[in-house]
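Entry for the shared binder. Reason: the reviewer on the internal report wants the predicted structure included alongside the sequence.
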Amino acid sequence: MSNLTMYESNYQCVRDHLQYINLVLAKLLLTREESSKGLYISQEEVWNVMDNIEKVVECENTQLISSIDEAYSIIQSRIQASLRKGCNFPFLKLYSLFELDEDEIFIVSLLLAGHTNPKYKTVFAYLNNDLNQKFATVELLLDAVSHNHEERFRKQCYFRRSAPLLSHRVIQIQDECVSLTDRFKDWLCEVDCVEKDIENIVEIHKRGDDLHNARAMQIFADKTAMTWLTGIDTNEKIRWIHCQHPQIEEIVVGDLDAILSHKDLYDVLDLAFREALLRESCLFFRNGSTLHEHPQSSMILRFIEKKLRTGKCQLYVCGENRGSFGMQSHHVAMPPLEERKQIWMLFAKNEISQNKINKLAEKYSLSFSQIENIYKEWCRSGKSLEVICKEFLAPKKSHYIQFIDPHYKWKDIVLPKDKKQELKEISKCIEHKDFVLDEWNFQSKVAGKRGINIVFSGGPGTGKTMTADIIAGSNNMNLYKVDTASIVDKYIGETEKKLRTVFEQVSDTNSILFFDEADSLFGKRGEVERAQDRYANVTVSYLLQKIEDHNGIVILATNLIENLDKAFVRRMNFVIQFPHPTIKQRVGIWKKIFPREVPVDNIDLEFLAKKVDLSGGYIKNIAWLACFYAAEDDKVLRMSHIIRSVRREYQKIGKAFLDSDFAPYV
């Protein structure tokens, strides 16, 4: 056995332990009587096997004991030297990672010898006094690590279920035969694989060349054993965990839904934790909401907490609903503006201009994996980057929100000059939101709030929805209109669930959430006279909290701002009143309402503006129906078609139509 100061590889460490095992086995063989073993294998055959393995020669017992002590001393000396140098070989980790003592490590070494060299089977069969028993037994192992009956009795605890060898699944015992588990044997031999029983349930995420989010590490310095993660996509959460643990190279990622639906869920959970322990990595479970919904959730949580008490593994769980579990939570935010620029540059290199990168980073709040996928799609499809960004940020289809494709421009809407300028300023605030919050660190002054909340108040058809469309289009954002009728539910608690779904769907999608007729959801809270009143107030309070926590843009539209709860109005960033259009403004609306392709004949816009005292939305309805009347006649739009359409619109809204008011066109 070489007497070097430290081990340079895992193989050297294993080799020295195997040499030490040979000496111990030689001592054990010397204590055996030939007559007890001669029935199957002669002692000479066994010594020949031993000689072929490591040239162990028969000698006096005292000399062998001296050689054993010397070999043990050398191993310990080299292990200590290796640990001081920071060596991290699997065999060295047996002491710290699994809390094994010297006898338990000897047991592991002896079992590894039987796995790596089939010639040891002859030795085991001889010592077991059974030619067919070619594996180490509990009795054989106890003989090897004990010097007397008292030690042998005491060391039986090594094979209890709660002992490290079995609790960490280092060994397995079947019919008194002891062997290393396959995964542990592979780990000792530095084979990179996953336990076969969970290979379809967990995956290993290795650290890549991702840019590290230093800001995230500063925010979440105080870590606990179990943390619930909310926020953006799974890949970004994994990247965030890597940033929190720069010392680890890989993360064990598991699907908690698949684990909890497994027939042996506790075994699978245990194997997942063992995999993380072997790799000295963190454990990350997706679909954590299933834990809250599982009938054995409390028992499973206690099992998990027990596994975490060792302090050797940290667990992260993500999901939509944390439920009542008291674990610490953290919201994983999108990368800040400057980091998004660096990510774009990492992929784009010289293919995209710096100016273009700056604009993309400012307009679209994207994660690392989203930018990577967008870049790949851009290279493959040839679509514009803006189009691909909007496609990637679009939420899943929902019964509660409707996508509106923005197509209006500022030139299309008729409003007082100062009102239009105010709306354009709001649009610019949305455009530069991330720059002000991240680059100028104004987020520190607003308690982490990143959203912008706006109220549009005005009568029907005054341009509230159209303005939301224009703001979305001018900022290359998607616009989603909330279907308030499907959100409001008569059953207690259901409205809140639907609202949570809506906000989760549009979270981090760089979109505008538009609540039309917000009065039905954001109505005033009143006196609690009935149980329904109390729950209605709870809904309003819950919705207010969701809006404040939302990191995007929310626009509330109402016909009367007095109908909204005062707390909502007070906490909005902007409140815009849309006035009823004047005659001059109605002339402008009539000028813009008909497409150029519509052939017209002597349309009196001034007359229409004076006589039809309606807002733009109603005027649009009138113009639309008038075109159908014209198409039915001679395909030319005339005043008679428009007045006929005005009559129908008045009837629809309950407004009196007098022929005398519209002479001579009636």
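Summary line for the report: The longest strand covers residues 452-458.
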